[in-house]
């Protein structure tokens, strides 16, 4: 093999599987002399072969169980030849598929073995299932190590010889034969007992007579066509399971994404709900504050109106006093009335001052609250409101000026009145009346001042009402914007939901399209396989028809021959050739280790003579390959031998002349 020349180079390279190989080498044939000891020659060459193969076939690398096969080969030949034979076994005897990381071929073998067990030993199969004793628990090592870890070497090598000639069929046969022989004992054991029985009793049942095991194995019914059908069923089942796993994985991914989306939407909804509640609470607080301000404003207005009424009464009283100045007769009742009015005026003054202080405090509080409110965003509306405020402020300033002028006039009148007060010093009653008038005038002056302050407060209240109106408009606009944003959010949520629905529908359609495409591809492959099988059958049928035609022609030539003597000689030659054919068909001897070199001699054959598949190679066997290699025949000899092996169908109407014509080229071929 070409890979034989690479063996020395492969040993110089490093493999990622070296640690695993070192770990398992000590457990490979631990009782055999060749492999006993940590640094023995057997362990070293076994490590070299396993490392070289892990570098040649990186997809398989190293798998437990393959070391036993390589160890058996190393008992028979040098490490380079053992490496070449192991490569050939892996490539052409289905072992590579068994040792792949997925171990798909092992699952197929277990599936086929379970079918044979159910078909041929139904009672034992039922017992295994009732005890949950799966086939893989005892049969996996049979297929992976070819019974090398089950039987002693004399029995295991016998099975291995048949495996090299027939393939994995012997593993099925030997496995069922073991179960048939031990069926009665296994039916009486539980799961643990059966496991111990497989490990301790079965391996040593045939130590003295391996032929008995082989005879039992070849009594087992084995149908290759059923095996092919089971292989197709297993492939279809695995393909369906793979599609289901892909679909489940896709659904899990979609479910995870939907859960994440739901969590995000729930968080957004909770945040919006918090903002909405906070806005409602703020609006309630502002409404309550507005209500309190309105009540306070109503109280201030009522106080202002009462102060205005008192001022009017004082003015009327002043007018009456001015009219009565010219009347010399003043009574004590009038003086008492003036004293009562003076006391009431002082009380009202005190109340007005208290209310004034309270209003000042409230105005300061309202100014602080107004400073904390947000600014106006709409510039145009703010300008209009500012113009209106300036107009009202101008009116208030004008009214304040008028009030100041009135106050100045009243003060001038009072000064003039004081300057004329010298005329009443002569009479005590007039003096008391003048003092009362002075106090009344001072009270009225204070009332006028209070009225001016009330107007200023009224102006301040108007300003506060204007600001309140501005802030109310701002709140209305903010509420409108919030409603618009909420509607937009609802619209976007509905649109997002629709898009999610469309996305899921498109994904579902895509998955359906992928499934349909996979089904179509599988159908096309099945049709191709059927067409290839049909073509192979047609070719086989054509070959049979050609052979039949050749036989008919040969038989006709022999029947029309007139030379009986030559026919007898030809028959003698035919008998000799049949003897040679039987000798060639006999099983080749494998006593000499160098006989394994015949495995790679088959590489020198023509490409047309090689088998087209692993099954044909297994059907041909190693012996047939050695036979064709060691004893090559010409095409005429091969056709003649095939014609001898097939039975004659019709011999009537033949002659001796045709036999002479057939024998002449054949004898020339033998001379050549």
From TrEMBL:
<feature type="coiled-coil region">
    <location>
        <begin position="447"/>
        <end position="587"/>
    </location>
</feature>
<feature type="region of interest" description="Disordered">
    <location>
        <begin position="641"/>
        <end position="672"/>
    </location>
</feature>
<dbReference type="Pfam" id="PF00566">
    <property type="entry name" value="RabGAP-TBC"/>
</dbReference>
<feature type="compositionally biased region" description="Basic and acidic residues">
    <location>
        <begin position="641"/>
        <end position="652"/>
    </location>
</feature>
<protein>
    <submittedName>
        <fullName>Ecotropic viral integration site 5 like</fullName>
    </submittedName>
</protein>
<dbReference type="GO" id="GO:0005096">
    <property type="term" value="F:GTPase activator activity"/>
</dbReference>
<feature type="domain" description="Rab-GAP TBC">
    <location>
        <begin position="1"/>
        <end position="167"/>
    </location>
</feature>
<keyword id="KW-0597">Phosphoprotein</keyword>
<feature type="coiled-coil region">
    <location>
        <begin position="227"/>
        <end position="275"/>
    </location>
</feature>
<dbReference type="InterPro" id="IPR000195">
    <property type="entry name" value="Rab-GAP-TBC_dom"/>
</dbReference>
<keyword id="KW-0175">Coiled coil</keyword>
<dbReference type="InterPro" id="IPR050302">
    <property type="entry name" value="Rab_GAP_TBC_domain"/>
</dbReference>
<dbReference type="GO" id="GO:0031267">
    <property type="term" value="F:small GTPase binding"/>
</dbReference>
<dbReference type="InterPro" id="IPR035969">
    <property type="entry name" value="Rab-GAP_TBC_sf"/>
</dbReference>
